[in-house]
Amino acid sequence: MRNQILGLIDINRIKSFSNRFILTSFAIFTTLVMILGIYFFTANCFPVVTKMNWLTSFIEISPIILSSIVLFVVRDDKNWINWSVILIMLGLFAAVATVWIKSVPSTQVSDFGIFWNKANIVAEGGHLYDSEIDYFATNAYQTGFVLYLLLLIKMFSANTFAMQFMNVLIQVSILLMTYVISLKIFKKVKIARLAMFLLMVDLDWLALNSQADNQYLGSLMYLITMYLILQGRTWTTIASGFTLAMGWLIRPIGPAVFLGIIVYLVIFEINYSQKNFFQELLLKVAVPAGLCLLTLFGTGLMIQNSGLNPHGLRSENTEWKFVVGLNYRTLGTYSTELNDRFKFASTQTNVKHEERQELQQEISYLSQNNNWLKLFLSKFSLLWSGSTNASDLVGFDKTHSPDSNQVVELIGYLGSMSLIVFSWFGALQLFRREYNSKILLLLLPLLIFAAIELIIEVQGRYRIELLPVISVVSGLGLFSVYSFMETMNRVKFSNYLAKMDLLQRIPLIRSIRK
Question: Which pTM does this prediction carry?
Answer without folding.
Answer: 0.90
